[in-house]
Design brief:
329 residues, alpha/beta, Rossmann fold, 4-stranded mixed beta sheet
Length: 329
């Protein structure tokens, strides 16, 4: 017996829709995951079994093989936990396989059966929608973020038992524990200062306007106190709004960085990043394996990267553009 559903894995900012297949064989009980999983994904077998037991379900005493297709694509993280559990229980006859085949399931499972929030939900949902998916299940804590993507039906679930009962299981029981919510983002989006506040500085204002109109980079030089920082902080205010595609891309970067407050909606205004002059290369460029953490350069996508007190003495560098801004050090 085989159960099938779908999920999404991230490689950098790019999301890839995958198929999750679960096969039950008459053999000694075992649980194997194939399809180039990393260590975190390989540990899903223990999380899934414990979550099923906490939801009042008996895990099938058979050999369970889960395949993540395409098998040649490396997969990492815990985002496929929910899809693996649903596919395996569908193969066991607990739920109807036809109801889950075209649905995308995203979520990490806790041992108590609750579905935990994810980092990078927005780019995953956007990738699923771009691949033709029309129904996506996400953790209840990521529901507001997932709803930022148009033309797709998003459903939030708090526990594995709750989802299985929606699919018709009579044995599953929802968790009595409160839903797991993401950590609150402190503070609202910063208010961008207005260039009209600047008196004088005609040449510098003209240079900012030219850079904003053409997406050019700027190099400002001068002694401290001449207004370089004051002018740079006002550059985003004269840039045009992001296009819908740029807004999704820029917001996805902040979702991956863990700095997105879904209550604020998509980033419609160009972002502004000003790393400290003592910031490390990793903080500015970003880094990490598989699911890389965005640095200041990536977070400035579609907006302004302000490098004050750059290594060149007395110079301030501004990088402006709708593409990922280049390193200019």
């Amino acid at each position: 017996m085989i159960g099938r559903t779908r999920s999404v894995v991230l490689m950098g900012l790019a999301g890839h829709l995958i198929e999750v297949e679960a096969h039950l064989a008459s053999s000694l009980p075992a649980f194997t995951i194939v399809g180039l999983p990393d260590a975190a994904l390989g540990e899903a077998r223990d999380r899934v079994r414990a979550a099923a037991a906490s939801s009042g379900l008996r895990w099938p005493a058979r050999r369970v093989t889960v395949n993540l297709t395409p098998a040649s694509l490396p997969k990492s993280g815990s985002v496929t936990d929910l899809a693996i559990a649903v596919a395996a229980l569908a193969a066991a006859g607990e739920i109807d396989d036809a109801r889950i085949a075209e649905t995308v399931h995203l979520g990490e499972l806790g041992l108590d059966g609750r579905v935990r929030p994810l980092v990078g939900t927005l780019p995953m949902v956007a990738a699923a929608a771009a691949s033709g998916a029309r129904e996506i299940v996400v953790p209840i804590g990521n529901l507001d973020e997932a709803r930022l993507v148009d033309d797709v039906r998003v459903r939030g679930v708090a526990s594995l038992g709750e989802l299985l009962r929606d699919y018709g299981s009579t044995d599953a029981s929802p968790s009595s524990l409160p839903a797991v919510l993401p950590h609150a983002i402190n503070g609202a989006r910063a208010v961008v200062p207005d260039l009209s506040d600047v008196q004088g500085q005609a040449d510098a204002r003209w240079a900012l306007e030219v850079a904003a109109a053409g997406g050019h980079h700027l190099l400002m030089t001068g002694p401290p106190g001449t207004g370089k920082t004051m002018l740079a902080e006002r550059l985003p205010g004269i840039l045009p709004d992001l296009s819908p595609q740029e807004a999704i891309a820029a917001t996805s970067v902040h979702s991956l960085a863990g700095t997105l407050d879904p209550q604020d909606g998509l980033l419609r205004r160009p972002p502004f990043e000003a790393p400290h002059h003592s910031a490390s290369a990793a903080a500015i460029v970003g880094g990490g394996a598989m699911l890389a953490r965005p640095g200041a350069i990536s977070r400035a996508h579609g907006g302004v990267l302000f490098l004050d007190e750059s290594p060149i003495p007395k110079y301030t560098l501004l990088s402006v553009g709708s593409q990922l801004v280049p390193t200019v050090l």
